[in-house]
Design goal:
With about 350 residues, the protein is of the alpha+beta class. The protein has ten helices and seven strands. It folds into two domains: about 120 residues, no CATH class; about 190 residues, Histidine kinase-like ATPase, C-terminal domain (Heat Shock Protein 90, 2-Layer Sandwich), CATH 3.30.565.10.
Length: about 350
């Protein structure tokens, strides 16, 4: 409770700090009592320190107004030095140390300058401590704000992903229902599994790659119901899938993107390749799919990939490469992530 009280904590600091200087003087042969009386003037200097560090420093140095700082600081320093000399002249030396005769130049300007230099030296360590404390406090606050902003943005992107995915999947179910397909109940079950995963499990920071692939299979099964025999899918996986930890919903958006491109082909075979590798602290995901023979531009088709790209920039800054390329009527996506 004592250390949590700011006033008591500051008092404790100054008591310990003064005691250190007094003990240093005793090492040079000065008695403890005399050294204590010598530092009584600090009772006047300490208020000057607070005026300097809690008013002048943030007001002028924080705003880079250095000239105004020195114009204000120099007179205050000289005034503080002069007040300390007066205190010593009229109280410390006559009554405590009992020195009836003091030098005639005791209150002269050179003496004031000399004491001002000593005050600067004396306030050096507390000033450095305060500056470092403010620096690390500001750094911690900035990191906290950035983390909160990053979390907020990720939550926003995730909130976009679920409706986007649901919209595309419901379109698939609608297509099956129109055809009166008996596979519609199975499709609803697959959708239920995927929504359960997205709602309850993707809130975790990291999940195993094996779990992400398990739900990727649910998504693929859902798409198989729609494409039927037209789908020619090649799925390859290698590496340590169980012990590799990744951010949820990294692979499924890429698979969804591949199937969406293929859905533009109303006829013919749908060729899709998905390669997943977790080797040497790198996760490599590659998808290859055919594209429509005719151009059908629809901006909605890019939401999932754009969303994923933004999430990767937040979650894996400078630790991933994400390339998309279309050539020879095929669409290539290549994602590499450096993982711990």
């Amino acid at each position: 409770m004592f250390l949590k009280n700011r006033v008591l904590k500051h008092i404790l600091f100054w008591v310990v700090y003064l005691l250190i200087w007094i003990l240093m003087d005793t090492l040079y042969g000065i008695s403890f009592e005399r050294a204590t009386y010598n530092y009584l003037g600090c009772l006047i200097e300490i208020p000057f320190y607070y005026v300097h560090m809690y008013y002048l420093w943030p007001k002028f140095i924080g705003r880079k107004q250095y000239l105004y700082y020195f114009i204000t600081f120099a007179p205050l320093l000289l005034l503080s030095s002069f007040l300390v000399l007066l205190f010593r002249y009229y109280f410390v030396f006559p009554f405590l140390i009992e020195m009836p005769e003091l030098p005639k130049d005791f209150l002269t300007f050179p003496r004031v300058l000399s004491l001002a230099r000593s005050i600067l030296l004396w306030f050096g360590p507390p000033t450095a401590i305060k500056i470092l404390q403010d620096y690390y406090t500001n750094k911690i606050n900035l990191e906290r704000i950035q983390k909160e902003q990053r979390t907020s943005e990720l939550n926003f992107l995730r909130s976009q992903m679920n409706p986007h995915f649901l919209f595309n999947t419901l379109n698939n179910l609608y297509s099956l229902a129109l055809k009166g397909s008996k596979k519609t109940p199975d499709a609803l079950l697959q959708l239920s599994n995927l929504l359960s995963y997205m709602l309850y499990e993707t809130s975790e920071e990291k999940i195993s790659l094996e779990k992400e692939i398990l739900h990727l299979n649910d998504y693929i099964e859902l798409e198989k119901l729609r494409f039927g025999d037209r789908l020619n899918l090649k799925l390859e996986m290698n590496g340590d899938l169980r012990n590799t930890q990744i951010t949820p919903l990294i692979i499924i958006p890429l698979a969804e993107n591949a199937f969406k491109h293929c859905s533009l082909n109303e006829r013919g075979t749908v060729d899709i390749e998905i390669h997943i590798s977790a080797v040497d602290n790198y996760l490599h995901i590659q998808t290859i799919n055919t594209v429509a023979n005719t151009e059908k531009s629809d901006q909605k088709h890019g939401i999932g990939v754009q969303n994923l790209s933004k999430r990767l920039q937040i979650l894996y800054p400078q630790k991933h490469t994400f390339r998309l390329e279309q050539k020879d009527k095929k669409y290539y996506v290549d994602l590499r992530i450096q993982i711990e």
